[in-house]
Design a protein that fits this description.
111 residues; mainly alpha; 4 helices
């Protein structure tokens, strides 16, 4: 249950961020095919992870599925940073990876 709350909050914040990016005043960052693909992949991965967290409220989710969702989400973040902003900050991925590790550990113990 705690892992679901963390994943729900994480994905809601991420989806709000991508909405602000898409509909904000400065929408000139989405130039090029790769940037548009990165935004689409980012949004799809976070929506799938959000749906998985909602499902987890009702039935147990296998660890392999959670690991797959975490890897998809992390890869979408890396692509997002590379193709939209042209840079990746290791500190951001360290914090995100730590949060996702905590989610996986909580999921392992059905918390």
């Amino acid at each position: 249950m705690f892992s679901s709350i963390i994943v729900l909050l994480y994905n809601l914040v991420s989806l709000i961020g991508i909405t602000v990016l898409l509909f904000g005043k400065e929408n000139d960052v989405l130039k090029g095919y790769l940037a548009k693909f990165a935004v689409l992949f980012f949004t799809a991965c976070h929506l799938l992870f959000l749906i998985l967290a909602i499902i987890k409220w009702f039935i147990p989710v296998p660890n392999l599925l959670m690991i797959f969702a975490v890897l998809l989400t992390l890869s979408s973040r890396i692509l997002n940073g590379r193709f939209i902003f042209g840079k990746n900050h290791w500190q951001h991925y360290f914090i995100t990876g730590s949060l996702m590790t905590a989610v996986l550990l909580l999921n392992q113990f059905n918390l």
